[in-house]
Write a structure and sequence with these properties.
293 residues, alpha/beta, binds arginine, Carbamate kinase, 40% helix
Length: 293
């Protein structure tokens, strides 16, 4: 028993050595964010990383919380081609909920452990700049309101906070060149930030175990996959999984050496992935150069 515990700690040693000083961007969402005990576990993991000498950065969204609040305020959403349109009125709520509520909750959970977390909106110090995004429906461009696509990242403020020993917590809101506020996908924002920071890892927390080998026929999780193989699988993936895996692909193709999709319903998934040899989710890595014939 005690030997087992020692082995667990010793298994972590090479990973502690390898990731000391490494910047790790974590997309936080799903059950890990909405359930109290999982939220506390998440905060433990992030603070553990910090004390282990890693530099974690958190990016979060908050779709369910936004929808609940829109309902509570009786703000009706209009839909175009099945997509929710983010009107200026809805955008006010999106920003209020993400920055004023969800971000504060994440910061509070981490700061139980010490003065680490500092909340930021993607608007702050021009961290995330976006352009209006149109949805493509049956080949036609459809306006869905203040939904943005990130076109530029200025991560200076995040770096300054990291250098100062803090844990930046970023809401997935972006600013347009003209000052318009945009809602941006948090998976995409996390990937863009990981690339800009030249992070050692992107970790995306979701509510599934990982990438399934032969979805929907089997639930065997793929432990590791190369970028091109993942790109081939993308069209056949479930709708919910596509943005997560696309984020991993973007990160890896943008120079991040490893991107992981983890089951946020599993307590301490982050520690188990980073500090064990096998991990518990799906890891995406760049293609190994093919040998020349
Ligand atoms: N899903 C996997 N195959 N994970 C392996 C993780 C290996 C190592 N702990 C790392 O974070 O790089």
């Amino acid at each position: 028993m005690t030997l087992e515990k020692a082995q667990t700690l010793i298994e972590a040693l090479p990973w502690l050595a390898r990731f000391h000083g490494a910047t790790i961007v974590i997309k936080y969402g799903g059950h890990a964010m909405t359930e109290d005990h999982l939220r506390a576990n998440f905060a433990d993991d992030v603070v553990f990383l910090r004390y282990a000498g890693l530099r974690p950065v958190i990016v979060h969204g908050g779709g369910p919380q936004i929808n609940a609040h829109l309902d509570r305020l009786g703000i009706e959403s209009s839909f175009t081609a099945g997509l929710r349109v983010t009107t200026p009125e809805a955008m006010q709520v999106v920003r209020m909920v993400l920055v004023g509520q969800v971000n504060r909750d994440v910061v509070a959970a981490i700061n139980r452990h010490g003065p680490f977390a500092v909340g930021l909106s993607g608007e702050d110090a021009h961290l995330l700049t976006a352009e209006r995004k149109h949805a493509l429906v049956d080949g036609a461009q459809v306006d869905i309101g203040q939904v943005g696509e990130i076109v530029r990242v200025d991560a200076d403020t995040v770096v300054a906070l990291l250098d100062n020993g803090r844990i930046p917590v970023v809401s997935s809101i972006a600013r347009g060149e003209d000052g318009t506020v945009y809602n941006v996908n948090a998976d995409t924002a996390a990937a863009a930030l990981a690339v800009a920071l030249k992070a050692s890892k992107l970790i995306v927390l979701t509510d599934v175990e990982g990438l399934y080998a032969d979805w929907p026929h089997s639930t065997d999780v793929i432990s590791a996959i190369e970028a091109s193989d993942l790109a081939e699988l993308l069209p056949g993936l479930s709708a919910g999984m596509v943005p997560k895996m696309e984020a991993c692909l973007t990160a890896v193709r943008g120079g991040v050496p490893q991107a992981h999709v983890l089951d946020g319903r599993k307590p301490h998934a982050i520690l188990l992935e980073i500090f064990t040899d096998e991990g518990i989710g799906t890891m995406v890595r760049p293609d190994t150069p093919k040998e020349r014939a």
